[in-house]
Amino acid sequence: MLNPLEQFLVKPVVSFDVFSHNIQITNSTITFLVTYLIILLLTRIACHKVSLVPGKIQACGEVIFQLINGMLISTAGKNSQKFFTLIFSLFMFILISNSVGMIPSVFTTTSHISVTFTLAIFVFITITAIGFVKNGIGYFSILLPKGTPMFLAPLIIFIELFAYLARPISLSIRLAANMTAGHVVLKVLATFVILSGLFGIMPLILLTILTGFEIFISILQAYIFSVLTCAYLSDALNLH
Is the pTM of the predicted complex or chain greater than 0.85? Predict the structure, then answer.
């Protein structure tokens, strides 16, 4: 049976030397570039010749806009709309990366913890900075909920600090683990279909169903990452 983890290996596609330095273009690099070009193309098409009666592409763009805008307002309040670009960029990058990774033999960038942790730590640092800019030293009050008895304060502060610092870890692991697990299962089933020959009809049916489910998970993970970012942003802006 083929190794189901082989699909996650970063492999050089093109290699060349520049001033005695070896430069490699990997499958990961190409996938990042393709993801960027798809996002750029979709946004340009959606915003090109905007009309009162939207076409199909413009309508899809407006649906995503309303989704992100509604998510921001409902989670973090109206004063969070200035951060729309941040949430929209995160959502689109994760959504397109997950979708591109569903194409057979294409590298899935969001299955690597290095990628998802980079996104998560960027969100963590950005929102922490927003919290201190908005609230100053008072942002530390996020570590001690109102009404906490003083004798419990040291324990609560320790727990809240641990939970706060764990945010980028939980964000990154959730996304990477879901994408990795789903792709491993699909790879194993695809191998069973190939090896079973004429008897591979049942694995093929199951593979088709799970592929549809994995596409749903890919979209859902982009939404969950964005919702959690909005929730953290709400804490920074409103000090719940």
Answer: yes
